[in-house]
Amino acid sequence: xxxxxxxxxxxxxxxxxxxxxxxxxxxxxxxxxxxxxxxxxxxxxxxxxxxxxxxxxxxxxxxxxxxxxxxxxxxxxxxxxxxxxxxxxxxxxxxxxxxxxxxxxxxxxxxxxxxxxxxxxxxxxxxxxxxxxxxxxxxxxxxxxxxxxxxxxxxxxxxxxxxxxxxxxxxxxxxxxxxxxxxxxxxxxxxxxxxxxxxxxxxxxxxxxxxxxxxxxxxxxxxxxxxxxxxxxxxxxxxxxxxxxxxxxxxxxxxxxxxxxxxxxxxxxxxxxxxxxxxxxxxxxxxxxxxxxxxxxxxxxxxxxxxxxxxxxxxxxxxxxxxxxxxxxxxxxxxxxxxxxxxxxxxxxxxxxxxxxxxxxxxxxxxxxxxxxxxxxxxxxxxxxxxxxxxxxxxxxxxxxxxxxxxxxxxxxxxxxxxxxxxxxxxxxxxxxxxxxxxxxxxxxxxxxxxxxxxxxxxxxxxxxxxxxxxxxxxxxxxxxxxxxxxxxxxxxxxxxx
Length: 498
Hints:
This protein is of the alpha+beta class. It contains 15 helices and eleven strands.
């Protein structure tokens, strides 16, 4: 009987088999391949050299996609199993240390098993867009929109943020949207808007978050113009705790502004829109404002405008009224730089202290009635912020306490001289503040809601009649879609089921 040939495949540089077609190649027994083992090879030993040359690029990309998806799936599964084992071990240790009867221990174990069963069921449930019914569009931005939605099976109300995948890829914002999703998924702080689900389809990314029906701080500022120092003190104190919570998670928001400070049904504040913290919109793109500055240099110097020759220290009442009227449109179209720290524009490195500059600018607006560097166009605002010592001006007709003005100046200064969070909390302006119980203090304003879907505190009239169905936008290819692997998230509260 003739001896059956044996076979061996070549391996790539990292030691893993290559996906390829195979061509048998006979090599002498003294070849490097045969000398790598102690077993002698016969003359009929056949080697296979593998390569991807005979496969189409589509086949290779689909194979790579399958590999990455499998790796992602099992990584998530293994991480979940490790977390589950950790919870069980922690429970067992607590029960062993507790001086309680065995029957009570058994009840706790049964309760734990029931919760874990609910958790696993939730993880297996696939969340889709069809699980939600649009009630109303409540916001629109450069990359998508925010809708008030209701979950079909539970009737619970959420705010759904949608982001176009194709736009994310075109503007290289993948890291930024991932940062927003990760921060929201990690956070359990009462000062940060809560994320319940995140999922995707071929066109959009979806973030399903809690709905805060009180609107945002910008809406309140546009309605009341100015706040008293007592009202300002309350809102600034809550903003400080919200920003501190974000910093404790290891993130820098970098785009703190009244539009991103939301009001819940009880009148307390929560921070939102964390994709902006790493430049999700043009508002935090230093290069964008540099381009605006270059455009400014090429403009006709004879044009009749407030920025010809020099920039005014302050604006007239008519100009301020125009700025306020266009404030919402500016956010959607080009973004507003009014609250961004100078070091962010200078691109010389910055840290979490840039968020305290932004809070100082918001405090200025609360007490004075307009942003400290507001102008009729973003390029002028940009230039004012860069040269802020020449343009930070407190109007004489506005009465501010010494403590209030000092706190603003202590936050709106160069980064190395800016107050830290503990110094801000200890500032005389906040004398007597109960930092541990702020969320239990009656706020100055509580939204009067007619129903759980009341959107009267949102400027929905400015949006027009938008369709309930999402716009059909450009679809990304299967290879580019891999960039969004691992975006899915489901929050388990311990009391919910799938």
